[in-house]
UniProtKB/TrEMBL annotation:
InterPro entries (UniProt xref): TPR-like_helical_dom_sf (IPR011990), TPR_rpt (IPR019734)
Pfam families: TPR_16 (PF13432)
Protein's organism: Tautonia sociabilis
N-terminal signal peptide: none
Protein name: Tetratricopeptide repeat protein
Length: 253
């Protein structure tokens, strides 16, 4: 038996353990990303969000994105934690990353109303547009949700490009929701605008299509609550507790 054989086996075992540890760390980063995103959804996805709560939501979005260095120069898909995920996990992360960019863009758009002068407003709107473009990059071609196109239309319209605004509004109108998540995103925009009944129509369809979509149930509860529909709100919140009890307790607090 070669003297090199035990050494080779030992090196192989060490490499295996390093890969296993790196894989576990990648799973942990994904879990912490999800926790940050959950906090952002609680803070940002309902109407009447005051500036303080909006800041909390923005901080949570930034924390989520920074876990994959998504605001840096390179692509977040090249970060170590992302490369070690399975293909299914990466697809899930990409959709969630797109939502995080989209939520942060909307928060920045709302921030613009608090800016002290026209120059500051324009800088904030341009930052929101940059985040919107980054959100698009997270989706496969043909899978970008209509809510992202609608947001872009608003932003470029404010910046004075009426032709582009019309183009993106048309794209949004021609983009049907493909998934329950797409419906949830559309409903979120409606809820933030105070259009709770319209949001509920989307959310009822979303929860029928995917009864496991926690955040659609959560937003249903908020919308029913704002409309004074106490029994329906309670039923929606009970669905949240059944689906994700730990998250529900944190959300309701």
């Amino acid at each position: 038996m070669s003297l090199c054989a035990p050494l080779s086996a030992g090196l192989g075992a060490a490499a295996y353990h390093r890969r296993a540890e790196a894989r576990q760390e990648a799973i942990g980063v994904l879990a912490r990303f999800e926790e940050d995103l959950d906090q952002a959804r609680v803070s940002l996805n309902s109407s009447g969000v005051d500036a303080g709560l909006r800041r909390e939501g923005e901080a949570a979005c930034l924390a989520a994105l920074e876990r994959y260095d998504a605001l840096g120069e390179g692509s977040w898909t090249d970060s170590g934690p992302a490369r070690l995920l399975t293909s299914s996990e990466r697809r899930h992360l990409a959709e969630a990353m797109g939502e995080a960019f989209w939520m942060l863009a909307r928060a920045r758009w709302l921030d613009a109303s608090d800016a002290p002068d026209r120059e500051s407003v324009e800088a904030t709107v341009r930052e929101a547009l940059r985040l919107n473009l980054l959100a698009e990059d997270c989706y496969d071609k043909g899978a970008v949700p209509a809510s992202l196109w609608s947001q872009r239309a608003e932003l470029v319209g404010w910046l004075g490009d009426d032709r582009e605004a019309r183009r993106w509004r048309k794209r949004a109108a021609e983009t049907p929701p493909r998934t329950a998540r797409d419906l949830y995103l559309l409903a979120t925009d409606l809820a933030v605008a105070g259009r709770f009944a319209d949001a509920l129509a989307k959310l009822e369809t979303a929860t029928r299509a995917n009864p496991q979509l926690y955040w659609a149930w959560f937003l249903r509860g908020i919308c029913h609550d704002r409309l004074g529909q106490d029994a329906e709100a309670l039923a929606s919140y009970q669905a949240c507790v059944a689906l994700r009890p730990e998250v529900a307790r944190a959300s309701f607090n």
